[in-house]
């Protein structure tokens, strides 16, 4: 009996060992499984984002959103037949540009925002004249647009597209696709871009002067301007979070440091220690080149002989690194927002609550919502079908080329 029990025990042990061995996987198998899981998640995210974009796409001709409007001709992979390589050309060219100037991402984000915010995403911000009328002011001359950058890079990408498919891909689509790819290159979230936009033949100087949010706007004005484009409070707070990758000319904050609103005193909402940091950072600001560029992912400040700019993550106490993260919101909680309009998000109970939400995790919530907000932004007031035109050069209507 004892021998029988011993044999049974050995058999059970052997079966257990064999089952454990069979359940083990080689490192290569584990890596393959992990890759498959990641790919599955990415595909699910893209699928969900495409569904979301169809649901949230709106049109804003005239600045008023109609939620009943549809995509009006925008499609996913619109150029699949007449220029199937279009999106890969944009992606590869954008990657080359980014390798040479990794500060381009927010430049393009800002360029897209200024274009879409005025009469929609129609590339009107690029126009150098208005239907040949040199006496008429254009968007590019409006004060908020004088510091825009990225138009040369869009011209470069458009040239590559036209070499492959002459006169097919619009400047508006080129900007929308390039901006998305630049966001991803900077560590930001992927979001799908439906294409088929056409370019405006008209520029809108007055609207650009009046309706683009300004660095010194209060929270009431900021929320009003965004709401006219159909963005609620959460979307507004989320979109402003794009400033997390920015650097700002000291010209935009000088009055906060010494003579806020003509009081002769600094802005009381600025943290005292932060105020001293800003004053030190901007001590050479009289030599700034007024470029107003927004570009870096670092959390340190910088100065050089030709410009005085401050990176958004100025404080070393709040890390940023090379991620499209949420340190912007963490800064606001500590009274360390660079722009008055940014810090004003803490002046309203609802927006302050949203700031706290975005600051509370590792940036996942911000990145998810930012993807959704950019989906909505990129569909504002698009021209499709027979509306507008496809420009040969982004700076001039086709008829003037």
TrEMBL record:
InterPro entries: Haem_peroxidase, Peroxidase_pln, Peroxidases_AS, Secretory_peroxidase. Disulfide bonds join 83-165, 116-121, 171-394, 250-282. One of its GO terms (biological process) is response to oxidative stress. One of its GO terms (molecular function) is heme binding. Residues 1-23 form the signal peptide. It is found in: Secreted. Ca(2+) 2 binds at residue 325. Ca(2+) 1 binds at residues 115, 120, 122, 124, 139. Pfam families: peroxidase. Its cofactor is Ca(2+); heme b. It comes from the Eukaryota. The keyword Calcium applies. Keywords: Calcium, Disulfide bond, Glycoprotein, Heme, Hydrogen peroxide, Iron, Metal-binding, Oxidoreductase, Peroxidase, Secreted, Signal. Its EC number is 1.11.1.7. It catalyses: 2 a phenolic donor + H2O2 = 2 a phenolic radical donor + 2 H2O. One of its GO terms (cellular component) is extracellular region. Substrate binds at residue 213. Belongs to the peroxidase family. This is peroxidase.
């Amino acid at each position: 009996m004892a021998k029988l029990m011993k044999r049974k025990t050995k058999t059970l042990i052997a079966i257990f060992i064999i089952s454990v061995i069979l359940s083990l996987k080689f490192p290569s198998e584990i890596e393959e499984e992990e890759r498959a899981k990641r790919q599955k998640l990415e595909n699910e995210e893209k699928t969900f984002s495409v569904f979301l974009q169809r649901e949230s796409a709106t049109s804003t001709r005239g600045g008023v959103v109609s939620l009943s409007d549809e995509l009006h001709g925008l499609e996913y992979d619109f150029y699949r037949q007449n220029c199937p390589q279009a999106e890969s050309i944009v992606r590869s060219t954008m990657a080359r540009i980014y390798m040479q100037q990794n500060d381009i991402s927010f430049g393009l984000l800002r360029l897209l925002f200024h274009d879409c915010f005025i009469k929609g995403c129609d590339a009107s911000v690029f126009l150098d004249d208005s239907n040949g009328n040199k006496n008429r002011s254009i968007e590019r001359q409006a004060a908020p647009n004088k510091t825009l950058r990225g138009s040369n890079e869009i011209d470069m990408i458009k040239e590559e597209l036209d070499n492959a498919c002459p006169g097919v891909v619009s400047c508006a689509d080129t900007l929308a696709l390039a901006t998305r790819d630049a966001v991803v290159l900077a560590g930001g979230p992927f979001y799908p871009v439906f294409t088929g936009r056409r370019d405006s033949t008209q520029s809108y100087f007055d609207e650009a002067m009046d309706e683009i949010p300004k660095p010194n706007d209060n929270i009431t004005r900021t929320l009003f301007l965004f709401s006219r484009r159909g963005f609620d409070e959460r979307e507004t707070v989320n979109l402003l979070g794009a400033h997390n990758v920015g650097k700002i000319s000291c010209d935009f904050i000088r009055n906060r440091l010494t003579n806020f609103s003509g009081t002769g005193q600094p802005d009381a909402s600025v943290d005292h220690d932060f105020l001293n940091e800003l004053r030190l950072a901007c001590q050479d600001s009289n030599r700034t080149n007024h470029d107003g560029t927004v570009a870096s992912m670092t959390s340190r400040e910088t100065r050089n002989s030709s410009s005085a700019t401050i990176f958004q993550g100025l404080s070393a106490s709040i890390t940023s690194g090379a991620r499209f993260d949420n340190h912007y919101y963490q800064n606001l909680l500590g009274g360390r927002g660079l722009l008055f309009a940014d810090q004003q998000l803490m002046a309203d109970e609802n927006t302050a609550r949203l700031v706290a939400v975005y600051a509370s995790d590792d940036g996942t919530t911000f990145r998810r919502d930012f993807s959704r907000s950019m989906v909505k932004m990129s569909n504002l007031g698009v021209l499709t079908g027979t509306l507008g035109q496809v420009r040969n050069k982004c700076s001039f209507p086709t008829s003037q080329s």
